[in-house]
Amino acid sequence: MKKLKYFFSKKDFEDKNFMVFGMGLGKDFSTLSKLQRFIDRCPRCGKGPMVMDTAGGELLCGNCGYVLKEKIEEVGPEWRAFSKEEKEDRSRTGIPSSLAMHDMGLATVIGPEDRDASGKSLSASMKATIERLRTWDSRSQVHEPMDRNLRQAFSELDRLADKLNVSEAVIEKSAYIYRKALEKGLVRGRSISALIAASLYAACRDTETPRTLKDIAAVSNVKKKDIARCYRLLLREMDLKMPVVNPTKCVARIASKAGLSEKTKRRALEILKKAMEAKISAGKDPMGLAAAALYVACVLEGENKTQKDVAEAAGVTEVTIRNRYKGLKAALKL
Asked: How many other CB atoms sit within 10 Å of the CB of residue 130?
C-alpha cells in the first residue's frame, strides 16, 4: 500500500477500481488483461479508458497517457507463427486432453517426419521399418473392443455436435455420460448412435442448452422414440437428476426463426417471468409455453404474426399455442 499512496487519495481506497487495481499491480499480462475490464477510470485524470500495450508491456490511460504499470511480464510463447503449419511446427505441446476422444488425447504416435534425433534423414531400409511400425502403432491403438466402440461413438458425437452447434462443455459432458454408460454395460445390445444421441440430449438438459429431442432426432439417423427410450434408461440406471427446462431459454431461438422484433421478445420474457411467479408454468412443455408467450407479446405489441407462424418456428402445433395462450391470458389477466 505504501507504493500506492503517492497517486491515490483517501477516497480512492473506498473505490472498487482502486481495490481491483491494487490487487492486480505487479501481475503478468493475462492477469492484468482480465483486471483491465474493471479499471474504468485513470487515477490521475479521472477519465479513461485504460489501455493494455502488449508490445511495450505497459498499462496506460487512453485519455492522458499516464502509465500505471510498466515492464509487465509476458507469459505467452516467445515465438510467432503466421500459418497453421508454422504453429504446429513450433508448438512444443500437443492438443489438450479431452473426454470426447477415445484415448482422451493421451496416446503417443510416431511422427510423419523420417528424420532422427539430430535432424538427419533416415536411410531407405530404416524408413521402411519406421513406416511398418507407424502402421502397426495406429492399428494397435483401437485393438480393444471398448476403444473401437468409443472411436465410433465419438465420431458420431462430433457430427451431431457440429450440426446442432453446441458448446465444448456440452460435448465433454456427453462424452462423460457415454463413458459411464459403457462402464455400466448399458451399450451392450443397443445402438451406439441412439445411446450417444441420448447422452448428448442429457448433456443439453443438464447444461440448460435449449435443444429438444426432435432437434437431435432430426440430425441423427435414429428415431425420436429410440432416443427417448435410451435417455430414460440413462436416467434410471445412472441415477441422473435433470433440472427443469426454463422456457425463457427457448424464447430467443423461436423469435429469431419467426423474425420477431427485440421489443416483442422482451415482452415475452416479462410474461414468462410473471407466469413462473404465478406457478402456472409447472408441467407445461417449455417450447409450447415460450411460443404462446411470444404470440401474446405479438398481440400486445401489435406485431402481425399468426399462430401458425409462431407454431412452425417453435416446432409445436397451433392447438398447443391456443391452449397455452388461453391459460396465460386467464392467469395473468391480460
From this structure: 16
Instruction: Measure the CA–CA gap between 307 and 298, rounded to whole angstroms.
Output: 10
Helix (H, G, I), strand (E, B) or coil at 284: coil
Boundary-marking domain end, from 49, 69, 89: 69
- What cell does 293 get? 408467450
pLDDT tens for 71-114 read 777 666 666 777 877 776 766 666 778 888 887 877 777 878 88
The whole domain housing 279 covers 248-332
> What are the grid coordinates assigned to 177, written together?
455420460
- Residues 239-279 pLDDT 10s: 888 888 888 888 888 999 888 889 999 999 999 988 888 88
Task: Count, in order, helices (H) and strands (E) of the chain.
Answer: 14, 3
What per-residue string of b and e applies to 70-103 under the rule 16 or more CB within 10 Å gives b? eebeeeeeeeeeeeeeeeeeeeeeeeeeebbbbe
Contact 65, 47 (CB under 8 A): no
Dihedral pair phi/psi, residue 220, rounded to 5°: -100, 165
Number of domains observed in the structure of the chain: 3
Q: Does residue 77 form part of some domain?
A: no
Is the confidence at residue 203, as pLDDT, over 90? yes
Spell out the residues 6+ positions from residue 147 whose beta carbon is closer than 8 angstroms to its own.
Answer: 102, 103, 141
